[in-house]
C-alpha cells in the first residue's frame, strides 16, 4: 500500500500540510511527516479552478495526486485532465535547454547566457532600427498572475515596447468588453453557488459536460429541481441531459435574446427596482419593439411558441434565473452585443446580485481572469486604465517606476498585431505559453507571417509545438507543478499553485526567465523588488487598493490556502465575507453614475454564410473532456490519449451523410475558401443538417476557419464558416 492511501483525502482542508517554498525544493521533509506529506495546487487546465492534492515523496516530489475534498470549488472531484495533471511533466518532448536557429536554419542547443544575449541584442537592434512598435508579445491565460504581471511590466515599462496581447483575446475578450461597458469594470458578478441556488439555469453557447465537467457537477447539486435550458445549435452532451434544448440556428442568439426582451417588456414582467439602477431603458424598450418572436423565427429557427415560453421561464417573478455563457457567445462576430443582450435580460428582470442569478460568463483557461486584471496588456496592471493619468501616476509611485515609462499608448489587438507583421511593421514576436500556429483563426496565413518576421522567440514547456518548431529562439520553460503563484478562476477566486516537481534540464520558471531578461536588458533595477512570486504578489495586491478588484485584505499565499481560496474583492476593512460572494448586491455598479448601462445594436449578417458552392456551416469547439486545446500537454498523457480519437474526425448529420454518400469513418476532405484538411466522418444526429462540427484540438482545423472579429472586443469568431466536403 502506498503511503498516501494512509491519509483519506476527505479530511478537512486545514489538516493538509500546505508547503509554500519560493522555488522548487520543498527542502528535506521532516521525517515525522514523511508518510503523509501533501501539498495543494489549483489545477492548471480549465478556469473551474479545482484544487488538487499532490502526494509527495520524502524529497518533496509529487508522485501522485487526488482531487481535494473540502475545497469549495470542486469538493473532492476532478475531471480526467486534472487526475492526469502530472503526466505532461515527464514527457521526452520537454524543452530542456535553450535552442537557437543556426546559419543552416536548424535549431540547435545553446546555453542560457547565449540565449539571453541573443534575445537582447536582436530585440534592441530591431527597436533601434524600427522603433518601439516593431516588436510584440503574445502570451496567455495559463501562467500565474505574478508571472503575467512581471512580463507585462517588464516589457512595457522596462524594455519600452507597446504592443502585447494574449490568447485570452481568443477566449474572453468579448465577456471582458461586455462587462466593462455595461458595469464600468470587467466584473463577472456570480459565484459557483449560484449554480446550486437557481430555479432556472440557462446555458448558452456553453458545453459544461465537456469543457467544465466539475461545474456541471455543481449544477447537479442543485436541490431546487431547476429547469436547465441549453441554447446551442448542437445537441451537445450537456443539451442531452438538460430539461430543454433550444436548437437554434448558429448566430441566432442576438435576435433570440432581443425577442425575449421584447416579450418581457411587452408584458411588463420586469423588476422596477433593478431597472431604476440602469440607464437606457426607454431606448432599449423602443429598440426591442421590432423584435417580436414572429420576426425572428426565420433567423433563429425557433418557433414563436418556444420563444414566448422561454420568455416566461426567464422572467417569472420569484424564480431565480441564472445565465451562463462561454464560447458559443464570445466567439462570434457580434459576441459583445450578444453577451450584453444576456446582461440586459438579467438587469430588466432583476436577476443580478442575488443568490441563484446573474449574467455569468464562464472563462476558459486556469488563469484567464488573472490575465484580465494583471497582464498589463489591454488594461493597466491591477485593473487600471492606461488612459487615466491618475492611474498611471499611482502605478508609477507604487512600483517605483518613473512616470514617463508608464506608457499611455494602447496596444494593438491580437489580429492587428498579426496584420502588422504581415504588413512588415512588426519585425519580432515573443510568444509565451500559447501556440498560435495551431490555435489562431485562419492559421494558414501565419506561414506568410513567419516569412516576414526577422525574429521569433517561443517560450514553452515543449520544443515541438507547432509554434516552437518555427522559432528562431526557443526558451525552455517550467510548467504547472514546477512553480508557484496564483490563478483566478471564473468566480473571481484566487488560489495558489506550488512547485512539486523539479523542471527538467535547464528549463526555468517563466518568472525566472523574466528576471534574467530584466537584468540582461539592463532594466533589472526597476524590478529590484520583484524577487520571487510571493514578493510580487504583495506588490500587486497593494496596487489593487480602491479598485473594484481590491484584494488588499489578503495577507499572503498561506491565507489564500487557509480560506479555501479567496474571491475578489477582499479589501482591507471588509470584515467577514464568508466563502461565497457575488457582486452588485447593493444595486450599485462601477460606472461614474453608479448605474448599469443597457447596450444594444441591430444584429448583423453572418460573415461567411453557406452558399451552393460551400454548403455546410462549420462549427468548431471542444471535443472531449480529455483533450486540451492544441494537445501539447494532454497529448503527452498515455491515459488521456486512450480516451479520444488520435486522428481528426468531424460530426455530420446522418441525413446529410446519406445525401452525399458518406459512410461512417470514411476519410473525407473538408475544404473552405482558405484551406483544406482530411478527417473521418462521425455520423451524429446531434449536429443539425447543413452543419458540421470539428473539434479544435487538431492543428489543421484553423486552416479552414474564417477570420471574422467582433468589432468591440476583436475576438475571433471561430464558430462559423462555410465549407464543402470532397470524398
Ligand atoms: N476538455 C476541455 N475543456 C476545456 C478546454 C479544452 O480545450 N478541453 N478549453 C477551456 C477553454 S480555454 C475554454 S474557452 C472553454 C470553452 O468552453 P465551451 O465554450 O463550453 O466550449 P466550445 O465547445 O468551444 O463551445 C461551446 C458550444 O458553443 C456552441 N456554439 C457554436 N456556435 C454557437 C452559436 O452561434 N450560438 C450558441 N448559442 N452556441 C454556439 C458549440 O456547439 C459548442 O457546443 O473550455 C475550457 N475547458
Ligand atoms: N477553431 C478553434 N480554434 C480555437 C478555439 C475554438 O473554439 N475553435 N478556441 C480558442 C480558445 S478559447 C483558446 S483559449 C485558444 C487556446 O490556444 P493556445 O493557447 O494556443 O493553446 P494551448 O494548447 O493551451 O497552448 C498553450 C501553450 O503553452 C505551453 N505551456 C503550458 N504551460 C506553460 C508554462 O507554464 N509556461 C510556458 N512558457 N509555456 C507553457 C503549452 O505547452 C502550449 O504549447 O484556442 C483558440 N482556438
Ligand atoms: S474541471 Fe478544469 S480545473 Fe477541474 S480538474 Fe478538470 S481541467 Fe482541472
Ligand atoms: Mo479559451
* pLDDT < 50 runs, ≥5 residues: 1-35
Instruction: List the strand order in the largest sheet.
Output: 5-4-16-15-14-6-7
The number of helical elements comes to 25
Present as ligands are: ligand MGD, iron/sulfur cluster, molybdenum atom
Q: Into which percentage range does the β-strand content fall?
A: 15-25%
Cofactor: Mo-bis(molybdopterin guanine dinucleotide); [4Fe-4S] cluster
Keywords: 4Fe-4S, Iron, Iron-sulfur, Metal-binding, Molybdenum, Nitrate assimilation, Oxidoreductase
Domain 4Fe-4S Mo/W bis-MGD-type: 36-93
Family: Belongs to the prokaryotic molybdopterin-containing oxidoreductase family. NasA/NapA/NarB subfamily.
Produce the secondary structure layout.
Elements: E1 38-42, E2 51-56, E3 62-67, H1 80-83, E4 99-101, E5 107-109, H2 112-130, E6 135-139, H3 145-158, E7 163-166, H4 173-183, H5 193-197, E8 200-204, H6 208-211, H7 213-220, E9 227-231, H8 237-241, E10 244-246, H9 253-266, H10 272-276, E11 278-279, H11 281-288, H12 293-300, H13 304-313, E12 321-325, H14 327-330, H15 335-349, E13 358-361, H16 368-374, H17 389-399, H18 414-422, E14 428-432, H19 436-439, H20 445-452, E15 455-460, E16 473-476, E17 485-488, E18 493-497, H21 510-521, H22 533-543, H23 557-563, E19 566-567, E20 596-597, E21 616-621, H24 638-641, E22 649-652, H25 654-659, E23 667-671, E24 676-683, E25 691-695, E26 721-726
Parallel strand pairs: 6-7, 6-14, 8-9, 8-12, 9-10, 11-20, 12-13, 14-15, 15-16, 21-25, 22-24
Antiparallel strand pairs: 1-2, 2-3, 4-5, 4-16, 17-18, 18-19, 21-26, 22-25, 23-24, 23-26
Helix pairs in contact: 2-21, 3-21, 3-22, 4-15, 9-12, 9-13, 9-15, 12-13, 18-20
Bound molecules: ligand MGD (2 copies), iron/sulfur cluster and molybdenum atom.
Amino acid at each position: 500500500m502506498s503511503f498516501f492511501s494512509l491519509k483519506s483525502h476527505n479530511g478537512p482542508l486545514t489538516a493538509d500540510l500546505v508547503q509554500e517554498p519560493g522555488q522548487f525544493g520543498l527542502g528535506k521533509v521532516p521525517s515525522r511527516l514523511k508518510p503523509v506529506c501533501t501539498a495543494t495546487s489549483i489545477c492548471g487546465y480549465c478556469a473551474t479552478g479545482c484544487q488538487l492534492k499532490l502526494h509527495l515523496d520524502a524529497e518533496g516530489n509529487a508522485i501522485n495526486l487526488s482531487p481535494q475534498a473540502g475545497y469549495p470549488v470542486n469538493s473532492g472531484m476532478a475531471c480526467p485532465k486534472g487526475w492526469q495533471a502530472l503526466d505532461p511533466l515527464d514527457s521526452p518532448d520537454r524543452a530542456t535547454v535553450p535552442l537557437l536557429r543556426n546559419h543552416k536554419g536548424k535549431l540547435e542547443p545553446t546555453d542560457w547566457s547565449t540565449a539571453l544575449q541573443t534575445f537582447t541584442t536582436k530585440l534592441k537592434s530591431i527597436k533601434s532600427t524600427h522603433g518601439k512598435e516593431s516588436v510584440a508579445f503574445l502570451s496567455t491565460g495559463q501562467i500565474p498572475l505574478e508571472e503575467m504581471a512581471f512580463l507585462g511590466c517588464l516589457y512595457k515599462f522596462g524594455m519600452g515596447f507597446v504592443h502585447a496581447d494574449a490568447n485570452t483575446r481568443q477566449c474572453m475578450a468579448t465577456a471582458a468588453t461586455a462587462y466593462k461597458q455595461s458595469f464600468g469594470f470587467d466584473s463577472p458578478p456570480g459565484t459557483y453557488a449560484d449554480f446550486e441556488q437557481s430555479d432556472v439555469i440557462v446555458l448558452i453557447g456553453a458545453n459544461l459536460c465537456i469543457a467544465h465537467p466539475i461545474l456541471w457537477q455543481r449544477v447537479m447539486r442543485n436541490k431546487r429541481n431547476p429547469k436547465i435550458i441549453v441554447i446551442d445549435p448542437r445537441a451537445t452532451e450537456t443539451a442531452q441531459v438538460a430539461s430543454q434544448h433550444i436548437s437554434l440556428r448558429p448566430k441566432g442568439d442576438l435576435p433570440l435574446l432581443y425577442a425575449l426582451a421584447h416579450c418581457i417588456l411587452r408584458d411588463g414582467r420586469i423588476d422596477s427596482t433593478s431597472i431604476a439602477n440602469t440607464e437606457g431603458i426607454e431606448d432599449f424598450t423602443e429598440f426591442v419593439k421590432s423584435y417580436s418572436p414572429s420576426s425572428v423565427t426565420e433567423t433563429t429557427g425557433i418557433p414563436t411558441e418556444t420563444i414566448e415560453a422561454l420568455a416566461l421561464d426567464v422572467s417569472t417573478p420569484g424564480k431565480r434565473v441564472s445565465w451562463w455563457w462561454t464560447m458559443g457567445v464570445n466567439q462570434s462576430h457580434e459576441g459583445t452585443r450578444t453577451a450584453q443582450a444576456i446582461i440586459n435580460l438579467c438587469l430588466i428582470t432583476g436577476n443580478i446580485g442575488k443568490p441563484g442569478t446573474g449574467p455569468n460568463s464562464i472563462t476558459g483557461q486556469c488563469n484567464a481572469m488573472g490575465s484580465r486584471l494583471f497582464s498589463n496588456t489591454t488594461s493597466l496592471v491591477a485593473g487600471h486604465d492606461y488612459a487615466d493619468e491618475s492611474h498611471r501616476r499611482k502605478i508609477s509611485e507604487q512600483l517605483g517606476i518613473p512616470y514617463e515609462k508608464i506608457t499611455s499608448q494602447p496596444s494593438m489587438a491580437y489580429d492587428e498585431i498579426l496584420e502588422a507583421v504581415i504588413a512588415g511593421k512588426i519585425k519580432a514576436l515573443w510568444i509565451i505559453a500559447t501556440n498560435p500556429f495551431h490555435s489562431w483563426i485562419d492559421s494558414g496565413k501565419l506561414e506568410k507571417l513567419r516569412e516576414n518576421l526577422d525574429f521569433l522567440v517561443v517560450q514553452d514547456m515543449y520544443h515541438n509545438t507547432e509554434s516552437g518548431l518555427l522559432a528562431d529562439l526557443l526558451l525552455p520553460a517550467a510548467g504547472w507543478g514546477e512553480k508557484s503563484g496564483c490563478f483566478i478562476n471564473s468566480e473571481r477566486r484566487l488560489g495558489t499553485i506550488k512547485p512539486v516537481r523539479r523542471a527538467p534540464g535547464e528549463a526555468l520558471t517563466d518568472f525566472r526567465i523574466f528576471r534574467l531578461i530584466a537584468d540582461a536588458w539592463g532594466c533589472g533595477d526597476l524590478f529590484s523588488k520583484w524577487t520571487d512570486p510571493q514578493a510580487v504578489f504583495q506588490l500587486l495586491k497593494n496596487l489593487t487598493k480602491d479598485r473594484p478588484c481590491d484584494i488588499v485584505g489578503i495577507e499572503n499565499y498561506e491565507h489564500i490556502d487557509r480560506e479555501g481560496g479567496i474571491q475578489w474583492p477582499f479589501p482591507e476593512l471588509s470584515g467577514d465575507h464568508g466563502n461565497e460572494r457575488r457582486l452588485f448586491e447593493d444595486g450599485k455598479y462601477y460606472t461614474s453614475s453608479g448605474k448599469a448601462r443597457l447596450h444594444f445594436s441591430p444584429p448583423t449578417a453572418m460573415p461567411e454564410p453557406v452558399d451552393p458552392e460551400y454548403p455546410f456551416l462549420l462549427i468548431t469547439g471542444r471535443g472531449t473532456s480529455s483533450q486540451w486545446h492544441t494537445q501539447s500537454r494532454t497529448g503527452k498523457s498515455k491515459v488521456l490519449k486512450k480516451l479520444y480519437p488520435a486522428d481528426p474526425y468531424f460530426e455530420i448529420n446522418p441525413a446529410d451523410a446519406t445525401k452525399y454518400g458518406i459512410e461512417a469513418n470514411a476519410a473525407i476532405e473538408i475544404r473552405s475558401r482558405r484551406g483544406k484538411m482530411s478527417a473521418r466522418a462521425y455520423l451524429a444526429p446531434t449536429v443539425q443538417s447543413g452543419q458540421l462540427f470539428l473539434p479544435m484540438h487538431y492543428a489543421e482545423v484553423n486552416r479552414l476557419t474564417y477570420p471574422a472579429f467582433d468589432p468591440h472586443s476583436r475576438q475571433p469568431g471561430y464558430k462559423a464558416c462555410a465549407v464543402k466536403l470532397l470524398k
